[in-house]
């Protein structure tokens, strides 16, 4: 890059930064974002730098890479990572960029391999990223200087989080300490993957997350409404008359669940730190409707095997939300993980994984179609909602609208996002021009 080109790029970056700061700082509380923050490719790039290059995000589960050589790839914007278990059983996160001339090393979404080999010039790496082979007769160079670049990895009860920052936020330790009593009994690390589904949503990643953080739209989820109380997210003074009976039923179910949890020594309180830390999260154990066992039409269990060492099928759902890109449902008979991976300003990959007990047998203990029925339909409906939202915010008629009281967690997500982006963009202002581009 010439000096003139470098100066132009730096000026453009500064312009995008200043524009984005203005949009973020003038957002009124409890109001959706202005259109460019959902639609502009340049501001999307700043999202990737300010959120996904600085914060911990959910990548996969240990259950998906149970043996040495097992790997999955995770793509976020232009970033690609290989999450792989090495020969010592350690989980590593490696940048999916060959150290020769930058080619993508692994192109499949998942697999098993003894070595990571770039198809371009056959540079070959161990599963810990060490360069093993670089065939070029007569060439001598220090191969120890050309290992695959690494990212930080943290497993929390089998949930694998990754951070690409040089110094990752440390409050993930607080998250781990708080959620472990809720999650440990599921034994996610040793679970069996029943199936995975990738769904491309035609919308900005923040619209995907906003949609997940509220149930104001849950009237559009008839399958989910069979087991999830329609009053989720409401309070006593916000329940509409038509949901009064559901509200009363949910209170009775929650009281029964808390008594059962107390008997088994299991936590059930809501713990919420969605806005006051980097690794923002919310966890709780909440009752389900009808039989109260699982996400099914009847509320009954979908697998005959209990997860981990859980003592009872009727333990509702353990619900975990983690900023910026994940949510989880732990049922006594299975666990579902959801990850939102931003692809572009108007596209987001949602990856859903269903986990069952390690010894559960497909066709005998569970049926995959029945296991996935509710959330296959719900995810598809959500994708339609997100696409409608993206189409709307892309219109010149769009004006940011207010969040309802039942959308408190949407406000919490957008507040977290806004605060972190302002902090990041303010930091850019103190860098030399060359460091901004």
Automatic annotation (TrEMBL):
Region (Disordered): 1-23
Taxonomy, superkingdom: Bacteria
Gene3D superfamilies: Naphthalene 1,2-dioxygenase Alpha Subunit, Chain A, domain 1, Rieske [2Fe-2S] iron-sulphur domain
Cofactor dependence: Fe cation
The keyword Iron appears for this protein: yes
The keyword Metal-binding belongs to this UniProt entry's keyword annotation: yes
Coiled-coil residue windows: none
Amino acid composition bias (Polar residues), ranges on this chain: 1-14
Any one Gene Ontology molecular-function term assigned to this protein's record: iron ion binding
Keywords in alphabetical order: 2Fe-2S, Dioxygenase, Iron, Iron-sulfur, Metal-binding, Oxidoreductase
InterPro entries per the UniProt record, alphabetical: Rieske_2Fe-2S, Rieske_2Fe-2S_sf, Ring_hydroxy_dOase_asu_C_dom, Rng_hydr_dOase-A
Residues of the Rieske domain: 56-162
PANTHER family in alphabetical order: CHOLINE MONOOXYGENASE, CHLOROPLASTIC (PTHR43756:SF5)
Protein known as: Phenylpropionate dioxygenase and related ring-hydroxylating dioxygenases, large terminal subunit
